[in-house]
Amino acid sequence: MSKNEPDFSRLLAGEQPADDPSLRDVAAFLGALRTAYPPASVDAVREQHLAAVSREVRLVGAARTRPAASHRARRTVVTTITAALALLTVGAGVATAMGGNPLTILPGLRLGPPEAPRSGGPTAGAPSHPTTTATTGPRSGPPSPLPTPTTAPGKSGEDHTKPTVLPTNNGKSSEAQASHKPTALPSQATAKADPPAKGRSSVPPKSTRGSEVEATG
Amino acid sequence: MALGERFPEVLQAAGQGADWAWAEVYREYAPSLLRFLTSQGAAEPEDCLGECFVQLVRNLSSFTGDEPAFRAWLFRVARNRLVDAWRAGRRRPAAPSADVGILHESRHQHEPADADLIRRQAVEDVLALLGDDQRAVIVLRVLEQFSVEETAEILERSPGAVRVLQHRALRKLRDVLEANRLSGGRSWIPG
pTM of this prediction? Predict the structure, then answer.
């Protein structure tokens, strides 16, 4: 049997294909197929189906008005989050520019004992590693206040064997770092000062704070 | 075509949610859709028809074209609903089997037999021997008079694939009917 469309067209018309007499039964069957399936009656289910269609029409119509409102709400949320992040970034940047440690705005953050300045001199971007007893929050300045030695990006020759905090100098020279008094943190535009512990002055004692105080972001 | 010159007006009104337009569409196309679903062995063809029309409401905004294209699109939605129902049946072992032979069981087996019902049962028994797509091609082309291209659109296949399915279906029918005739079974030849 060929895939000849004219043969099938003859079959559709109830005729035998010219080149294949064996299709006589098929032609007859196809004729019987037409009479076996007259157009079906939908009287029993018409009302039910049309009611379902009406309900769906209303749902579709309502859904078309909803997306606009949800889009506006999503846009508002995204805008708010973006603005908050921008504000945090700006605040941290301002704090850093003013020589402060933006991390001090984080509650519960305590700065550990001072560490000797790194060999090779501090450079901008050196990581700040104050010892902390609290989990640090989001930072917007130099890298995290990890108590373990980490490698500052691009740095070499630095002493990372000491498991304590390495100070940063926030771009200051080593002389400035050495001369830095481990006293109160510089005022910061946006950072909040740690609340003084009971019985302590606002100036952190040398035993617990040191030059690393200058660890700035 | 069924709606003819009124088709654009009816389609637009249906898109706007007019009940009268959907009633028109239902009146014109539901009987042939139900016939198609029944011939394909749907377990619950009337339920499937209702689901088809709900789906049509949801997707009407995605349709563009003239009435022949609309008719083909209706059958494509119906076919897809049918396939979904088959797949759901296969996922639920406790449900009636998706076996074609069982799906083709006469729904009138408890009603008084008559010549029409017997003939229909015999036709269904033969159609059940074809594959799903082969059976669809035969019904769409013979009963619904769709062209090869329209049938391809309904089945979401290429026209060439439809011709192959058609050829294989006819060959299968020929073999089955000839074997049946030689074994003394029913003759389809009238007279």
Answer: 0.59
